[in-house]
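Sorry, any thoughts here?
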Amino acid sequence: MRLYRLERTQVVPQTLEEVFAFFTDAGNLELITPEFLHFRMLTPLPIHMEPGALIEYRLQLFSIPFFWRTRIEIFEPGRRFSDIQLVGPYRRWHHLHEFSQVPDGTLMRDTIDYALPLGPLGTLAHMVFVRRTLEQIFDYRRDRIEQLLGYDRKGPP
C-alpha cells in the first residue's frame, strides 16, 4: 500500500479558541467544501466532538456519488483533533488538524495521510487526478477560511 501525504498550514488572525470552535463545529464543513463536491452532511447537527464520534456525509466527484463515514480518533480541546475514514473512497484516510497560538493569531496545520485502493491503478489515478483534486479542495478551503475568518498576509511563521 502506497501512502501519500498532503500538508497545509495557514495563519488565521483570530484567537485559538475562536478558530478551534469553528473547526470543531461539523456544520461548518459545508462552508469550506467546494461546491463541485456536492457535499451534504447526513449526521444530524450539532455533533458532539469527542473520540469515537461518527460523522457521515455524502459527496460527489465526477458525477460519482460517495458515502463517507469518519470517526473522531483524537480530540484535545484547543490543540488538535483527528478523523479517520471508516467508509469512503480511500483505502486509508487520516486527517490531523492541529492548532497553536502565534503572535498574529492561530496557526492551523492539516496533515492528511492517505492511500488509494486498486494497487497500480490507484497509483495512476493519484498521478492523473487525485493529488491535483485534493490540492484544489484544500486551496478552496484556504480561500474560504480567509473569507470567513480573516487573512494574515504574512503567512505561517
